[in-house]
Amino acid sequence: GSLKERHHVSIQVSLDGPKDIHNQIRGNPKAFDAAIKVVETYRATCVTVLTRANLNRLSEVRTLVEKHSVPWALIYTRSSHSTDFVPDVRNELTEDEIRQGIRIWFDYAWKRLGWRFALSHLNILQTRLRYDRTGKWGYPCYAGLDDAVLYPDGSVAICETLPPIGNLGEADYNWPAFWQAHRQKAPHYCF
Questions:
Q1: How far apart are CA 163 and CA 72, in angstroms?
Q2: Alpha carbon distance 74, 47 (integer Å)
Q3: Which of 26, 110, 133, 165 is deepest in the core (most CB within 10 A)?
Q4: Would the pTM count as exceeding 0.90?
């Protein structure tokens, strides 16, 4: 069976815009083609980080995910533990701009992914907006209980905002072995 079937994993890939925008954001002229290859090979969920650079091009991202018939999730810029990713303050979106992006995404999600996914993810986005406005999070963050962030160098973090807990190379790139060895480090409540 496939990687997804053998290990019951969900694969997500960043797709931050059409080719020109994605490559610009990622700083790599081959990034878009590599992302699309992952989408086509694994039917990966596309995740778009909403930014000022791609806000007015979200309809093009929607067309791409529709073409590949894959799930699409939307988040907006937040900081990272990594020194090579620090959001540009000139890129910060207003709440109205974020809501504009959410409307484009939600229309797709409702029609293509079903009401449960659409409403569940919408709740996450609205909770994030409320947190940004009030500083109060509505519920604990459970990142790391069943997901992680895999960086290109093999580092694994439970959330973009926290340092890596290890490197997949330690387990000879065997995800189940790595996760079993490091799972106790995963649960956290940062909000």
A1: 26
A2: 6
A3: 165
A4: no
